Amino acid sequence: MNKKLIIRADAGKCMGTGHIMRCIALAQVWQDQGGDVTFLSYCDCKALHQRIINEGFDFIAIEKPHPDPSDLTQTLNILKRHAPCSMPHALWFVMDGYHFTPDYHKAIRKNGYRLLVIDDTAHLDHYHADILLNQNIYASSLRYSCDRDTVKLLGCEYILLRREFLKYKDWKRDISDKAKKILVTMGGADLGNETLKVMRALSSLNDPDFEVKIVAGPSNPNKEILINATRHAPCSMLCVENASNMAELMAWADMAISAGGSTCWEIAFMGLPSLIITAADNQVGIAKGLENASAAINLGWHNNISTEQYSRVFEEVFQGSDKRSYLSKKGQKLINGKGVVEIIKAMIEKQINLRRAQENDCELLWKWANDAETREASFSSALIPWEDHIHWFDTKLNSVNCMMFVATIDDGTLLGQIRYEIKQENVVISISIDRKFRGTGYGTVLLRKASKRLFNESNVRRVHAYVKQDNRASARVFSKAGFKKLELTTIHAQRAIHFVLERFTS
Fold first, then answer.
1. 4-160 and 170-334, same CATH topology
2. Superfamily of structural domain 170-334
3. Measured distance CA(261)–CA(265) in Å, rounded
4. Predicted TM-score of the model (pTM)
5. CA dihedral angle for residue 338, residue 339, residue 340, residue 343, rounded to 10 degrees
6. Phi, psi of 36 (to 5 degrees)
7. Contact 234, 206 (CB under 8 A)
8. What are the φ and ψ backbone dihedral angles of 356, each rounded to 5 degrees?
9. What are the DSSP calls for 442-496, one per residue?
10. d(C-alpha 28, C-alpha 8), whole Å
11. How far apart are the C-alpha atoms of 184 and 259, rounded to whole Å?
């Protein structure tokens, strides 16, 4: 993948911390795969600024955020310093924030940079982006106006989860008869101090068995008030400031009381039964979506809920283990934990360019075909003589029943070749990847992209692939690309795994 990732997201008392926190999830995986990450941010929260630094990312401060014109000027100057002038597309730029406009998007793309826009609301007239991401459950119901080549990633399969949560994949939660361990998290700022109202409602139940942990976000201005309130509670209450272990806190808890922001997706992934409170317009869809999926209890707008109403709901839900167990299972079914991986696959796919094989590709394909690892993986391992290859290549190039593609990366680097032998509605595929890209994930993405093009340009219904039984690496590539593993068969007197890919329905 391209090595440079630059993220433009802001955080503070007026906009919360969710935009940066979910971008950290993308940045972590990018960094794990050998890439460099820089955050450009107007961030008036020292704790969040330090968190970005502690993750090993570079941080460049934006002094005056958009719509101040200095923002875009400063951003474009930084992008120019990070990307070669001849290859601006060798850099990915991520934007996450409601205050960025179509003109801002357009300026980034006009200068040749790859652009991923993260959105929740479809509030803009138009989105200029290579990829538009909306991770929310309601995303597919929104109407987006985008550039013709924009790839839209919509829905919970693209949830951005930080690595602290991913280690809990397939973790099984025990549901207690009574919810005693309560986690309260009202977002990064909670300017209206809804947390205090929830604390008072919990205290009014006068249950000494409760253990309550209150997460005070990094931009919360009411921390001293909350800490003071814990001292007078009839049960154990602890205020956790600038929590860096949210996954552990969610694993500890029996029940969560949460604002309806991005934290809800983390709670659902952890199988933590939750009560959701709507504290901002952009939380309405999340709360309703989780309610409709039976994955959480939606309490509605915070200003419509009294302390007494909170108390009644808490008392009822905390006692019902069956209800909480149901919420837990439904939440976990929504989030598979593969969101960031799927997003990066889409980013890689955008970097791959496919062109039909040409006469001057003859020698290139011959060298790829005679690569030692390629020959070992083939059903016929003997080296291919040049004269035989010339005749074969000329035949395939001029056959209406053969589609051959050469794949390159954005900067022109050769990636590999892929060939389809067509017979009516079925084809057999052959693929080889340049040795320096093996094991990088490009092969999987190339298979997916080329097969989409095949289906779009032909009446082919399914693609067949045959892999030597002991070739585990190739088998994994086809499986990850969506091919279904069928029965073992025999090819040239050798046992082979039969894979098939059906025409995409979306």
1. yes
2. Glycogen Phosphorylase B; (3.40.50.2000)
3. 8
4. 0.86
5. 120
6. -105, 140
7. yes
8. -65, 145
9. HHHHHHHHHHHHHHHHS---EEEEEEETT-HHHHHHHHHTTPEEEEEEEETTEEE
10. 15
11. 9
Angle, helix 362-369 to helix 386-397, in steps of 10 degrees: 120
Q: Smallest Cα–Cα separation from 454: which of 501, 397, 396?
A: 501
16-25 pLDDT, tens digit per residue, is 788 999 999 9
Count of Cβ atoms closer than 10 Å to residue 268 Cβ:
28
Neighbours of 323 (CB within 10 A): 16
CA distances from 498 to 274, 410, 478, 486 (A): 45, 32, 10, 5
Q: Is 145 helix (H, G, I), strand (E, B) or coil?
A: coil
Phi, psi at 273, each rounded to 5°: -55, 140
Backbone CA torsion sign across 13, 15, 21, 27: negative
Looking at CATH, the fold of the domain delimited by 4-160 is given as: Rossmann fold (3.40.50)
Domain boundaries along the sequence of the chain: 4-160, 170-334, 349-502
Written as six digits, the tokens of 341 are 């991986």
State pLDDT tens for residues 187-243.
878 878 999 999 999 999 999 999 999 998 877 888 999 999 999 999 999 999 888
Bond prior to 67 in cis (omega within 30° of 0): yes
Q: Please spell the DSSP secondary structure of 24-37, one letter per residue.
A: HHHHHHHHHTT-EE
* Nearest 10 degrees: Cα torsion 146, 148, 151, 152: 30
Which CATH architecture fits 349-502? 3-Layer(aba) Sandwich (3.40)
Residue type, 464: H
State the pLDDT confidence band at 347, using cuts at 50, 70 and 90: very high
Tens digits of residue pLDDT in 252-305: 999 999 999 999 999 999 999 999 999 989 899 999 999 999 999 999 999 999
Question: How far, in whole angstroms, is CA 225 from its chain's centroid?
Answer: 36
Q: Are strands 236-241 and 255-259 parallel, antiparallel or unpaired?
A: unpaired
Whole-number Cα distances in Å, 109 to 117, 131, 166: 11, 11, 33
User: Can you read off the two tokens belonging to residue 333?
Assistant: 């079914």
Output the CA angle 127-132-136, nearest 5 degrees. Answer: 115
The per-residue pLDDT for 206 is 94
Distance CA 381, CA 491 (A): 13
Reported as a single tens digit per residue, the pLDDT across 39-85 is 999 998 888 899 999 999 999 999 999 999 999 999 999 999 988 66
- CA 362 to CA 310: how far, in whole Å? 73
Length of the chain: 506
